[in-house]
Automatic annotation (TrEMBL):
Annotated keywords: Coiled coil
Keyword Transmembrane helix listed: no
Protein's name according to its UniProt entry: Transposase-like protein
Coiled coil: 47-74
Species of origin: Micrococcus endophyticus
């Protein structure tokens, strides 16, 4: 379609004509055509590979934020474990923070290279 754009007054007109023949919505066809122009360097905007990289970085950022939250919770958990209880001479175990299981905390700690016992 892009090679026949000169046959139409606008990109929208081209998308309408081609979309009607192919049974594709003109909006979808227009987005695809615009993205193809961006990828070819004919228009400004984020290329398909850049958009994919942005999505990948957003996923990585979300995963790192989650890992940081788990590690913070683990630090609070283990700090509470080392706090002596005034009524009990044994080590006090505090509650696990905000719904994170001890198993998931230990998994993240192991992934980070922290030695955690198998029975923990």
């Amino acid at each position: 379609m892009l090679d026949r754009l000169d046959d139409y007054p606008t990109l929208t007109a081209a998308c309408r004509a081609v979309g009607d023949r192919l049974g594709i919505g003109k909006g979808s066809l227009r987005r695809w055509a615009r993205q193809a122009q961006v990828d070819a360097g004919e228009c400004e905007g984020a290329s398909s590979s850049e958009q994919e990289r942005f999505k990948q970085l957003e996923r990585e950022n979300r995963d790192l934020r989650e890992a940081n939250a788990i590690l913070k919770d683990a630090a609070v958990f283990f700090a509470g474990e080392l706090t002596p209880d005034a009524t009990d001479p044994r080590i006090h175990r505090g509650p696990v923070a905000q719904g994170r299981s001890l198993g998931s905390i230990c998994t993240v700690l192991r992934e980070q290279g922290v030695p955690v016992g198998e029975r923990t």
